[in-house]
């Protein structure tokens, strides 16, 4: 028996990724070497003190029960970390743990929107923003991130009546996929617009610890007025190489946090005690590895973007994140370029269109290989698309 899926799911297409997976499997079957730069999972290890905390936790039989809520120990660790790292004081009602930003963001609109409410999302943008808004039956309006505007939001291009109907806007810097960082003034402007039009701001902070060329990662909540009009997701996935533990927090305006908590209390029995212990170790332990890792990502960025420039490509340096956003050569679309590259050289990128229509003309490479290997990969790319 074949059962039909919910009509709501017709919105989603697996097309491009399924086709890429099939091609990759085929290359591997042929015994070809594959360089997978399409993944968003760091190749770095978690710090020893985090793994030791988990080891200790698994030996404690009490830690196998439903946790139901965040432990005081984890909430305190988060609050102290925010104060130390970002200069932001967080009170109890202003924070909740979520099972990864992906999960929290996926449910946020359901907790805060009614069908038809407008949600403003970046194009190109990280796909869960759109999926979450769709689940809640929101009207999705995109703001464009373009190179000419340094990949920053330009709300002047959004009609005023749309801004008035907007429930919330999602922003995320340093940005996946475009690799741009934002100045504090961008957030200051956004806060003024939120106050004027009555929407709130959700900042997705996944990469504050992967930021280059002397820029400082900061929390949106450190900007005056932010907590009045917004909240941010702070994920431990990339800073601490804990992608598989699903650890993130929503922090900020208590009414936003309260709504998500209420919704989550209906289906979530809490983050595993083991993972909460890992979060405590990450947030209270030394962060020298986080700093070293950022320097290594920058070396990789230099190797990939600099290597492509040597091959005659118009590749600019990412300002942060573990990704680079590269314009495809003339005569190719994002998809045809990624496909040709994969077939010819075994290098796998992600077509920019996987992140929205404005991603056309770009492909994204993840910095998940050592710098030396990335430099070799740029030579393979250069041979596939000679620019000189
Ligand atoms: C911008 C952005 N937000 C959120 C996530 C997901 O974070 P988490 O692992 O906490 O679900 C990612 C992961 O790649 C990301 O790039």
In short:
By secondary structure, the protein is an alpha/beta fold. Helices cover 41% and strands 14% of the residues. Helix 1 (15-29) runs parallel beside helix 12 (334-345) and helix 4 (101-112) runs parallel beside helix 5.
What descriptors fit this protein?
single chain, 388 residues, alpha/beta, Aspartate Aminotransferase, domain 1, Aspartate Aminotransferase, domain 2, 2 domains, three-stranded antiparallel beta sheet, 12 strands, 41% helix, 14% strand, binds pyridoxal-5'-phosphate
What can you see in these coordinates?
The chain has 388 residues and is an alpha/beta fold. It folds into two domains: 126 residues, Aspartate Aminotransferase, domain 1; 237 residues, Aspartate Aminotransferase, domain 2 (3-Layer(aba) Sandwich). The chain is built from 13 helices and twelve strands. The strands form three sheets. The protein has a seven-stranded mixed sheet, with helices on both faces. The protein has a three-stranded antiparallel sheet with strand order 9-12-11. α5 links the parallel β3 and β4. α4 packs across α9. It is globular. It starts with 14 loop residues before the first helix and ends with a helix. Bound molecules: pyridoxal-5'-phosphate. The site of pyridoxal-5'-phosphate has 13 residues, from α4.
